[in-house]
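User: structure tokens for 3'(2'),5'-bisphosphate nucleotidase, please.
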Amino acid sequence: MPISCPRIGGNLPQVVLRQGRCVQFSSNHVAGFISFFSQSHSPSVYSPKNRSRVLKIASPSNFSTSPSHPLMEDPERLSLSSEAGGERYSRELDVAVRAVQIACWICQKVQDTLVFKTNDGNSSGSNDKQVHSKDDNSPVTIADWSVQATISLLLSESFGTSNVSIVAEEDVHALSKADGAGLLKAVVETVNEALSEAPRFGLMSPQGNLGPKEVLEAIGRCNSAGRLNRKFWALDPVDGTLGFVRGDQYAVALSLIEDGKVVLGVLGCPNYPMKKEWLNYHHRYHRIITKLTPPASESWDRGCILYAREGSGEAWMQPLLHKNKSLEWPNAAVPIRVSSIDNPALATFCEPVEKANSSHSFTAGLAHSVGLRKQPLRVYSMVKYAAIARGDAEIFMKFARAGYKEKIWDHAAGVVIVQEAGGVVTDARGRPLDFSKGIYLEGLDRGIIACSGAKLHERIMKAVDASWNSSCL
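Assistant: Done. Predicted tokens:
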């Protein structure tokens, strides 16, 4: 838990941690500690290359242990940067990764109930109870609302509600209707259960359970229709909801945008295995594995989280937290890099599964014209960006059909992760994606191209120029 959390900060005049115990000290010691800490250290550490060191406070002779104070936090969670001054956005990235870990826990729990038990015949009718259709007929589940509420609450808890601006995909309209009482009850229960798990992920949980009003307020604060601040978070609580309800790939995407630039991105991929060799098997094979191996087995390595901070030149991947374990930063994180393949005949390209919002025929024509011979990797959601960033594929192309506008939360986190992993992401004219115009990627020229390197990227753009006028997009 970052030391600058408002709740811990509010308790500093009374106690600090010392070897796992709370100690009492004077106001002079408090002032000295705060001055030393704020001038010399970053609140927390993220990059696994900078191993965190535990906060240790020297014990003056007039310090006395105080049994009256409860233990506030595990001292292993109160970490400092090993570099004086730390790195910009490092605390935001730390909290974001932990929050997405919790969000993935929510999604796995809901998906297991929604898909696996239903398909096994143990939970008949659960789909009808947990999936709701939006006005555009796209699905939204209990997981979408629960993740949005939970991340909204965790960010507000960590940075203060007045300092947090979030734009996200879901609203409270369906939950607020009279016939949405059952959905709202399920969402409230899921959010409270998730928040009770927060300490396991190194974050603070609220005092007592939240009611429907607080949960609706948390979802509503992510006002996608409101005016964007100079600095705001963009959240897609479950990107690829159709994949989610089918038991397929989906993602939780959280990014921080400042002055139109994505400064950090976190991408949770609960069904995308850490080990590349597992990609040869459908993720539902996990159900068989879990029946053949003990519940604590980590042989499957189901799910991962990718993250990056703009300008760092690094992107990282860590496994999802296994059941009943606590997150120990950096949670076995490993660096990821894009593929070095630049021969189109050897390259793999990704494209969306859904045909409603993109043209498979146009991308197929482009693939043929540049010499791509492999079958495309078709996956739901921003998992496509994960595939590029960690070298499982080399090209992602998306060309929307007429009338469809790309939303910022569908791309922001993936873009910064691919770029920091060494890749290139632009529109089809070669221009950076513009996240400064609101909730849509306004001014997008034709489509989006993400590649593992500049050579492949250049060939794709030339093919687009040659093919565009003859297309029907």
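User: Anything notable?

Assistant: Residues 68 and 117 are 47 Å apart (CA to CA).
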